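Annex B. Sample input.
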Amino acid sequence: MSERRRTPLFPPVWALFTIGMQYALWRLLPGPQLLGGTWSSVGLALVGAGFVLILYCGGLFHRSGTTIEPGHVSESLIIRGPYRWSRNPIYASMLIALTGSAIWFGNLTAFLPIVGFHWIISSQFIALEEEMLIERFGDEYDEYRGKVRRWL
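Annex B, continued. Sample output.
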């Protein structure tokens, strides 16, 4: 099967762009400060947890001998580890990390770019990937999709 991609930027680039937007809003248009103090530590812990989970899931792809790159057809269907609870734990982990960075910044406007990230990932990546997985794995993926939620 051939490679298919709807956007030239990969999800980690979109995540970094989102953090950049959070920072810019924090500096230029901070809005009300919602959180501070120990919440900063909570935010950094969420960023770290999201990053660790992304690395763990990446290892699952590597051990399964399939691609992690969006737009490329998978050679195997990964349904173990965090994939037992989420069909998209890497994207969910990115959202966890972005929520952590918003908590760390502590202001209301830092949460706004997360909505855009969620929309881009859902419409430009997940929709395509699910289409490809149905095409590649058929009933096996349909059964998995019936048991496991998209996000959490």
